[in-house]
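#lab-general

N.A. 3:47 PM
ok so I finally got the sequence cleaned up, no stray characters, all 312 residues accounted for. can someone with queue access submit it? mine expired

B.Y. 3:52 PM
send it over

N.A. 3:53 PM
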Amino acid sequence: MMRGVQHASRGLLLGAALLCLAGGQRAIAADSIDLDGLEYRLEQLKNKEHSLRRVLEQGQTDSERLHRRVVARGRAYYRASRGLPGGDFLEYAVKVERLRKGLLIDLARLEAIKMKRKSAGRSLTLLRERRAPLELERTAAGRARDALLSRGERERAFQMAFSASGARTDHTAVYSSGSQVAFEGRRFASLRGQLPFPLPGRAEVEIVKMPYAAGEGVILRAALATPARAVFSGRVAYADEYSKYGKTVIVDHGDDYFTVTSNLSRIEVKVGDDIPQSARLGLAGAEGGRSKIYFEIRRKDETLSPGEWLGI
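B.Y. 4:20 PM
back already:
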């Protein structure tokens, strides 16, 4: 009951924000909409779903492998238990008993995997049911805050569009709803020119060569309190403060490809985390009333040209 009241209250707040905008008023500030809190809760559910899917996938692989072994051992046990010892009876009896115990152990493991997959499947269903209303609430909150921030952001982007000509060819403005295209089943190397931006929504992107970096990177600026996200699934290899980079997260995407996301104000992952694409890495750092991060793409020790990968 209390949860329903809380959802209703948040819904009224979002509706009021949109109504105020429609009426030309700005009585409700953008920071009164807890979009970050909603996104954080949603992210926790998504990460749990990702882990459960991995459990189901690994369980399927282990189950198939064990099933093949059970069939092979079962046939061997059947043949051994139905035959007659060709030599020493004690040695024969030990062999049959070893096959029997091995078969029972494999059958028990197979049943345990089955139960684990069944439990993971139920949990996954429940998580999806919990995520659905949060997705709707997050969409409503995002629209409300975007509407509150839209005018100032659009004016800034409009002016920057004119200043991006000539000498400012390294600077561009990107406009996005923040939705992420799924790249499941693909490898990082296949995403050249299609890699999503680590900051959702409208962002100003500047290709730079920092004096402390080995190659080119990008600076992205967006609305305040924008979360930085993983551009592709992978494992967190580093999540800590680092020299001039500040709070930094490095994600290992496999095949020796890495992304470096730095200048974060808060890190929300830890080393060893297996994260899905678009997972929250943390909050972008604040600068001049806006969010800002520095981002690099690497293969082994080589820093790759970000424009080729981001399609800019």
